[in-house]
């Protein structure tokens, strides 16, 4: 492991696993689950926060219940490349309210975008009016999300 | 459950900035803290808010490489999806599994410490997953935006 990377023990990993399921747990509750005192749990959580391992809370909502029944991942290839065109594309893409995620990638595409829409007709509107008009946009491939599952990752 | 404009306003501000203190969120949504508390409770009870989870910064734990792997599966086998996904769950470096309608069937989000580590995972754990017809890799360069925000 390189310098600056936090060394975790089993207790730290158990804390991260617990908070990745419920980020609202207090230090006392985390402590009770892992047979730690409240101050000991608090110190460990604080250390994980300071090292930037715990990077805030995220909220998981039922998008369909809120009227957003469709999530689509787009692979976008730029027609023109160069630093300026990347910045223009990124600025315009991040400003679209329906675009939740913008990732610069290496491979078959240049960008991955996660787009939410009310239904397929609404998605088509976003695609035509907002995505296809982005500066420098070339080929676009769309895949409609059916299911998603978050995994605990290498914390075992 | 009936969701009204107040619920939508609260969720819009909260999803845009999940780290907001409750008092600041109430302020932004233009409701009293008591109303906010009641509304969030109701939304949780109805399952609209499923969870509040801690975001883990894998880079701070030494995982420098993140790859999005796009698979098409051999769909002549009716068990292909189930068996592929069950096997993918057994790979600790997999942090997300998504299924799609489109040219891609399944996507895996995979972490690695560095390129050497990645090569090992790819050869020993990924290419050995069952029913793969085709696989493409997109290597993450940078995340420009990552938000759960909804245009409510």
Characterization of the model:
The complex is a heterodimer of chains A (156) and B (152). Chain A has 2 domains: 10-50, Orthogonal Bundle (Arc Repressor Mutant, subunit A), CATH 1.10.10; 64-144, Lrp/AsnC effector binding domain/regulation of amino acid metabolism (RAM) domain (Alpha-Beta Plaits, 2-Layer Sandwich). By secondary structure, chain A is of the alpha+beta class. In chain A, helix 2 (27-34) crosses helix 3 (38-50). In chain A, strands 3-4-2-5 form a 4-stranded antiparallel sheet. Chain A has helices at residues 10-21, 27-34, 38-50, 83-94, 120-131, and strands at 54-61, 70-78, 99-106, 111-117, 137-150. Chain B has a 4-stranded antiparallel sheet. In chain B, helix 2 crosses helix 3 (33-45).
CATH topology of the largest domain in chain A: Alpha-Beta Plaits
Helix content of chain B: 25-40%
With strands numbered from the N-terminus, the spatial order across the biggest sheet of chain B is 3-4-2-5
Q: How many DSSP-defined strands of chain A?
A: 5
CATH superfamily of the largest domain in chain A: Lrp/AsnC effector binding domain/regulation of amino acid metabolism (RAM) domain
What name does the CATH topology of the largest domain in chain B carry? Alpha-Beta Plaits
Number of domains as seen in the coordinates of chain A: 2
What are the segments of chain B in which pLDDT stays under 50 over at least 5 consecutive residues?
none
Mean pLDDT of chain B: 95
Strand content of chain A: 25-35%
């Amino acid at each position: 492991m390189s310098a600056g990377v936090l060394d975790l023990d089993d207790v730290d990993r158990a804390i991260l696993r617990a908070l990745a399921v419920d980020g609202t747990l207090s230090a006392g509750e985390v402590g009770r689950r892992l047979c730690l005192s409240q101050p000991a749990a608090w110190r460990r959580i604080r250390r994980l926060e300071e090292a930037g391992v715990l990077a805030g809370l995220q909220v998981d909502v039922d998008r369909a219940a809120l009227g957003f029944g469709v999530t689509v991942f787009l692979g976008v290839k730029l027609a023109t490349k160069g630093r300026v065109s990347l910045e223009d594309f990124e600025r315009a893409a991040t400003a679209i309210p329906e675009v939740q995620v913008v990732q610069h990638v290496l491979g078959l595409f240049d960008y991955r975008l996660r787009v939410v829409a009310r239904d397929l007709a609404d998605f088509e509107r976003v695609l035509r009016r907002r995505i296809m008009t982005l500066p420098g946009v070339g080929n676009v491939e769309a895949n409609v999300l059916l299911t998603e599952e978050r995994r605990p990752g290498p914390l075992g | 459950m009936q969701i009204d404009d107040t619920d939508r306003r609260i969720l819009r501000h909260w999803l845009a900035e999940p780290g907001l203190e409750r008092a600041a969120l109430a302020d932004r949504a233009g409701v009293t803290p008591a109303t906010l508390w009641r509304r969030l409770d109701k939304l949780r009870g109805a399952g609209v808010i499923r969870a509040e989870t801690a975001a883990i910064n894998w880079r701070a734990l030494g995982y420098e490489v993140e790859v999005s792997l796009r698979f098409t599966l051999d769909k002549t086998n009716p068990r292909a999806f189930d068996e592929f996904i069950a096997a993918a769950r057994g790979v600790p470096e997999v942090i997300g599994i998504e299924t799609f309608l489109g040219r891609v069937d399944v996507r895996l989000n995979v972490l690695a410490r560095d390129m050497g580590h990645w090569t090992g995972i790819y050869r020993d754990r990924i290419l050995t997953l069952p029913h793969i017809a085709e696989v493409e890799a997109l290597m993450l360069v940078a995340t420009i935006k990552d938000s759960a925000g909804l245009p409510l």
